[in-house]
Amino acid sequence: MKRTKKTLGIIMALLLAAWMLPACTSEDNSNPMDTGYPADAPSLPSMSTMVFNLQFFNIDTPQVSQQSIETGKPDGIALRTAASANRTNFINAFVRALYVQLLTYDVLEEPIGAFALAIHSIPQEQDDGSWLWTYIFVEDGMEYSIFLYGTPDAGDEYVDWRLEVSTNHPFNPLDHFVWFDGRTYNDDTQGFWQFYDPSLPAPHTSGRIDWQNPSATEHRLSIEVNGPDHPDYGDTLEFFETSFLATIDNYDAGEDQRGNITIQADGSGSLTVPDYNNGEKACWDTEQKDTDCPQ
Questions:
Q1: Cβ(108)–Cβ(286) below 8 Å
Q2: Within 13 Å and on the Cβ side, how many CA atoms surround 236?
Q3: 35 in any annotated domain
Q4: What is the pLDDT of residues 176-218, one digit of tens each?
């Protein structure tokens, strides 16, 4: 998996937002405006259906540099600090978790950011039964228009979503380009998002997110780069969280390599990646100090 485009600042803003979001429920789907919000409009999907958070790392969040996050490996200062505290395994896991999230959302952060803006508007019912959220802003003299459509199923089982963007940007003009579409089920158990990138050949497919809430205390987010023309085609990342553990599994299709990070509710955990500890599992205890892995 490789860095392909965009700026670190945009992505890090998304990471910060993800860090603060609830992971498992739709309780954060409250209407953005209490006054004048139509009662018949479909419930907005939670941001946790698109972005996974790293709140389970908040045990004792270490300070790491931008360089560490961009390379996926702690720099010299971080390594010395980790070694002095006997926390080398945990620091490596922390940096790699940020790294794989950064790379995965490299292809998704702009449409997700557009969605986060659109939901702060009041929806209007359309003649075809859909609801439209519209958000327009101007930056550096260029106008951007975001259109989010939600179409409820006649049987009230699910809602189909579509987000379009238009801009008069001189180098990348767009006219109602579909940035993503998808479906969320009203019982909050599952759904998916399919993303598209105007810089790729038609049909512009870039990435897909599938999410499930198997129970009130479980949340799974699976992300796949599924655009055949994308340089990271085939890469996957799966985030799974329960009340007692959280895991991140990623697969780099180009290198044919897999990695895993697991953290228990008591703060202990493990890291397994090909280029660390000779590919063997590396563990830490409840104080995040290096320890032998249980047999």
A1: no
A2: 12
A3: no
A4: 999 999 999 999 999 999 999 998 898 899 999 999 999 999 9
